[in-house]
User: Fold these one by one.
Assistant:
Number 1:
Amino acid sequence: MEVQGKVALVTGAGVRVGRRIALALAGRGMDVAVHYNSSRGPAEATVAAARETGVRAELFQANLGELGQIEGLVRAIDDAWGRLDVLVNSAAVFPRTPWPEIDEATWDATLDVNLKAPFFVSLHASSLLRRDGGGKIVNIADWAGLRPYRHYLPYVVSKGGVITMTKALAKELAPEITVNAIAPGPVMLPEEFDEETARRIADATLVKRLGSPDDIAQSVIYLVEMTDFVTGHVLVVDGGRLIA
């Protein structure tokens, strides 16, 4: 895809990996719709940084756990640009939930944001993506969706769902829209992890180091700009952790 002057929506673009993805797309010449739910200050900083690259960037607030707000988000982007070429479903929650602490509220909140939301954003954005001949969807999954780990069961179930959803959407939306997923490994550890834990995780990868959010952002660039012949694929970006 030629990305100069095209429009991308990145959900959860105010912080962490979503921010790096939004700025990477802006750096390639794309106008960026910066979505946030509650992190308005960081999202404003993402918009400011994107505008410094010379593109147009706008702020869009929505609680993706509510279908009406998803519909409103897509309408707002249509009103602002009249087009959408790339959707990156990055917004997610990551609650640590040991087995005895799993309850219905945590389960619902996790799957609403991590699985239900990217599906319905994709559903409502698909007509806008098709308007100018087609577009691309990139879902941010997790390597834990392929190899679950303990104490995050609702999260890993949601990311496993994202992987299956990606393949199903690729079939439903072909040929106009390609749909792929990126499954990050250890690129941004939870804040509560200490240096010893981080070192053990790095040593468990084949490359013996942690990744960074920029590794994920550059993988998005590959799927968006560098190839038009990949769809229904899950790109694992984990330094070899999955097979170690």
Note: The chain is about 45% helix and 15% strand.
Number 2:
Amino acid sequence: MSHDRQGARLRAAAAQVVDAVATAGKSLDTALPEHEGRVGKQDRALLRLLCYGTLRRHWHLQFWIGRLLDRPLKPKDSVINALLAVGLYQLTETRIPDHAVVSQTVEASRLLRRPKLASLLNAVMRRFLREDIASAVPDTAEAVHDHPQWLIDAIQNDWPGHAEVILAANNARAPMWLRVDTSRVTAAEYVQRLQEAGLAAATFDPIDSAVKLTEPAAVDDLPGFAEGLVSVQDAAAQLAAPWLLGGAGRRVLDACAAPGGKSGHLLELGGAQIDLTCLDRDAKRLQAVADNLDRLGRSATLLCGDASTPQAWWDGSAFDAILLDAPCSATGVIRRHPDIKLLRRASDIAPLRDLQRSLLDSLWPLLAPGGRLLYATCSVLAAENDEVLRRFIEATADAREEDALQNNNIRDLMQRKGCGFQVLPGTAGMDGFYYASLEKAG
């Protein structure tokens, strides 16, 4: 296959992925595997870059497209709109030569069975370069911030002093964080191993298991990955396990365990001192937990069940500690999942809030007196975080917040809320996470 034909095929695949998200409402995790098999393995990193980047800049790119087209493309040609967005993203955000971008994007329209639109694509992309459309100032808040208006409003309402920083952080590429199994090697020792393998990285003083790579790497290139020495996990997510286990007893429940990152961390820290039960309602996702624990050489009791209906799976023995990593809007991890900005709706928040409260109400009776429940989300929205916890505490006589941080080194990384603590996206390169620790009265 010629280089031009190969490049056109890659751009056609990128357009199909972007269109699947923007028009069909599919997630990137679903759409990418459906199309990446159409390009060579050597091109898949570029395919991911184009898909993630185009979705990250969606509203700004659509603003430019609106300036370039006299009238919108027909709905049946939405894939060509996506292809044009992929092309404009390359012209402004990559070092690919302009002539290659234009020629291969035009050729991609033929592979997508829209040959009659090839001349239009060629004309508008050349006009984009000739008239410097990229310098046009966006005329909507959505195009300025590359977020939907409802989410801009929610973030500005919840974080008036931090909204601009959060919105900008959501549009940045996330670094690759690793979690070192500190029962086997220190973070500093593992950084040395990475350097010997030609990978640059640094430790992170506030969290002793966290290592940040200077540049992302394939897991197969990470020393000891296959043997469970290290895992891929954002530093903010690494706060959960030590927070839950600090001073807690033996019997532990990870209530929404899949895909198993926090479960593995709990076992690395607790070892034989804890008896861990990993629960998830989805059997396929529970298998991902099993696979992760198998790689780590760790074991736990795995249960397929719904945390909101414990009568179907609970044996009646109380847990000393419960981790509730609750389903949420995922608005704290948008930089890793830019499709969230297009897929999530304002109307999703109230049902998620109700589910989170239902999970708290259902799991609280399973906690032993004196036990700890750690509530966590990867959301930055108060409606899913401190507002849920405040109402739960007000309605639950034996629940109180433990407002002392387990690790004072992280104090400067977190924003104190009315209840709980928030890590904002981009803080020290971390994702956005919310935590609240509750203790059950003895």
Note: The domain at 236-440 is CATH 3.40.50.150 (Rossmann fold).
